[in-house]
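Q&A log
Question type: sequence-to-structure
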Amino acid sequence: MDNDHILVIDDDPSVRFFVEEALRRIGHTVVGVATAEEALVRLAKHPPALMIIDLQLTGMSGMKLLEKLHGAGGDVPSIVLTAHGVPFNAREALALGALDFLPKPCTTAELRTTVAGALDPARAARHRRAFLDSLVRHPEQSVDQARQEVSSQQPEGM
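Response status: OK
Response body:
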C-alpha cells in the first residue's frame, strides 16, 4: 500500500478533476477512475492508502463497491463523497467500513481536512465512531448537522 496514493472513484469528470487537483497540490499521488469496476482492477494491482468514492456511479454503485470490499475483508480506508448525503446512506456507508461521509459540494479545505483525518488511523477510527454514533442517536438530523456535532467535540485539528 502506498502511503499517499489516493484513488478517486467518481463518474463526473469535473468532480474527479477537483478532487485530484486539490489533493495533488498538497503532495498526494492521486489517480481517478470513473467506475467501481475500474477501481477494483486498480485495487488488485496497486492498493491505495485511501479511496474517495461517489455513491451514484455508472454500473456498480459506490455502496455496492463498499459492500464488496467489506465482505472481502478489504482494509483500504474510504471516504464517501456524494450529492446523495442522506443520513440513511451515511449510516450504511459507515457500517460498511467507510471512515467518513462528505456531502457534495464541499470546499477544498473540507476535502483536505477530511483526507488528512482519514490518513491518520487512530483519528479516523475515533471520528468514524463518533459520526456513526451521532447519526444513530439523532436520526432526524442531516449529515451536515452530524458532521458539525462531531467536529465540535473533536480536539483542534480534527
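Response note: The chain has a mean pLDDT of 86.
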